[in-house]
Amino acid sequence: AQSVTQPDIHITVSEGASLELRCNYSYGATPYLFWYVQSPGQGLQLLLKYFSGDTLVQGIKGFEAEFKRSQSSFNLRKPSVHWSDAAEYFCAVNSGYALNFGKGTSLLVTP
Amino acid sequence: DAGVTQSPTHLIKTRGQQVTLRCSPKSGHDTVSWYQQALGQGPQFIFQYYEEEERQRGNFPDRFSGHQFPNYSSELNVNALLLGDSALYLCASSLRQLYNEQFFGPGTRLTVL
After folding, report:
1. How far apart are CA B29 and CA B32, in angstroms?
2. What DSSP designation does A53 have?
3. How far apart are the first and last CA of chain B?
4. I want to staple B45 with a disulfide (CB 3.0 to 4.6 A). Which of B25, B50, B58, B105 is the partner?
């Protein structure tokens, strides 16, 4: 079955530092991949998506992600983190009409 | 442009009761999916509705049922509530041809006592 793994449960970065959140997927063909962000008590906001084409995908809020088929990865990056980026981040892969989500990575931003 | 809306925001029920959650999709969207998110977990797919029919179902028991109305809004019904049904229930909407690009509502927090 199609699935994603987010190896890091918690990540702490300093404000202004760069960020990379890891996501590995398991899928037989070319997957559709997504990153969502969830603030406490809120729903999910779509940051970016990969369907096909250019493997470097730009999203909202200054985020980008790179699809690497050889590594089965779709890591999320941001060059300079702001305190408002503190949230839970979820990677997801399509499974028919559904999305299968990872367990999430909680991002803490320190001053 | 109205996003996905859900009601109620919070709900408290007791074991054995039944609950109905409601969702209105984003303007222009015709497909609705429901997810359950337990505390500290990622969302789990319950089912997706399109043209008032259940199109795909996740690994949830028959106690979970749904409905989609002609105006594309949707309901999620859960019967015989268990303590383990306590979770955030998320509704997501999409276009039929882009059914994987899903936009989420704020969720309904269900607590079962």
Report:
1. 8
2. S
3. 37
4. B58
Residues paired with residue B33 on neighbouring β-strands, in sequence order: B48, B92
Q: Which residues pair with B6 in a beta bridge?
A: B23
Residues whose CB is less than 8 angstroms from the CB of residue A32 and which lie 6 or more positions away in sequence, other chains included: A49, A50, A51, A93, A94, B100
Longest dimension (CA), chain B: 40
Strand partners, A75: A66
Q: What local confidence, expressed as pLDDT, does residue B1 receive? A: 64
With CA atoms as reference, the chain A residue closest to B38 would be A103
**Look-up of token digits 């028919």:** A96
Tally helices (H) and strands (E) across chain A: 0, 12
Give yes or no for a contact between A107 and A14, defined as CB atoms under 8 angstroms apart.
no
The DSSP H or E segment spanning B60 is none
pLDDT tens for chain A, 111 residues long, are 789 999 999 999 999 999 999 999 998 777 899 999 999 878 899 999 999 888 999 999 999 999 999 999 999 999 999 999 999 999 999 988 899 999 999 999 999
Cβ-based burial of A33 (10 A; exposed 0-12, middle 13-18, buried ≥19) = buried
Q: pLDDT of B56-94, one tens digit each?
A: 999 999 999 999 999 999 999 999 999 999 999 999 999
Size of interface A-B (CB pairs under 8 A): 57
Interface check A103 vs B, CB under 8 A: yes
